[in-house]
């Protein structure tokens, strides 16, 4: 990653777009965590927690920029991923503890969390471990501990990853989107957006980190359900109606188990339903965060 600045906080001014947001690094317990920080200073920041194998360049620029039009947004990397140091954890518990430590190291006393996929597992665990730290929670393309099929993410994903290699397409085409014309168009547009940033890009994930994160996902799918009824903050839950990776039934399960949560389901959309419907998702998220 180029131009990595060691800085605990952005000092002044508003960075408008993810495409040119500086890369920062902060030491937490002796480990450097990479992040990007944009949007207006002040107010409750939105912390972004991303999917399996994702680095800073895997956040959808339209969603990041849309949220940053009104809120401070901090996009983060997990330990051992991209330009972050250390070894990738093999449990969601460790990732959540890292996230809490990172948030506190950045000096935030209250945050909103947006967790996508693996990031949604981490966000739930953060909200349960540190309830006073989290004001609002957005969970997308994700499911609860012990949720249906979550321990099969690897088994579902490997054939689609191989298909991507054989067809010379990014595997996210098959993992995140439906095979309809609508889904294929959305996949192409999303993958194009991820390439918009030309300078200061993050390092890709190592195969070791990728496999260690999969262990954490599998363990999450096999662990005992958590008491999601104890989450008493506003929660927005979103997914496509045809999620292959984290089956959409988990989205409905989350909504049933978290009191007063709001549910958004996108039709003819898969795991990446929020990317396919980014304009609507940003609008709903801004309404939710601003309410």
From TrEMBL:
* GO MF terms held by the record: hydrolase activity
- Signal sequence, renumbered to the chain: none
Keywords assigned by UniProt, alphabetized: Hydrolase
Highest taxon, organism lineage: Bacteria
Pfam name, any one: Abhydrolase_1
Q: List the InterPro entries hit by this protein, alphabetically.
A: AB_hydrolase (IPR050471), AB_hydrolase_1 (IPR000073), AB_hydrolase_fold (IPR029058)
Q: Where is the AB hydrolase-1 domain?
A: 45-276
Entry-linked PANTHER family: AB HYDROLASE-1 DOMAIN-CONTAINING PROTEIN (PTHR43433:SF5), HYDROLASE, ALPHA/BETA FOLD FAMILY PROTEIN (PTHR43433)
What protein name applies here? Answer: Alpha/beta hydrolase
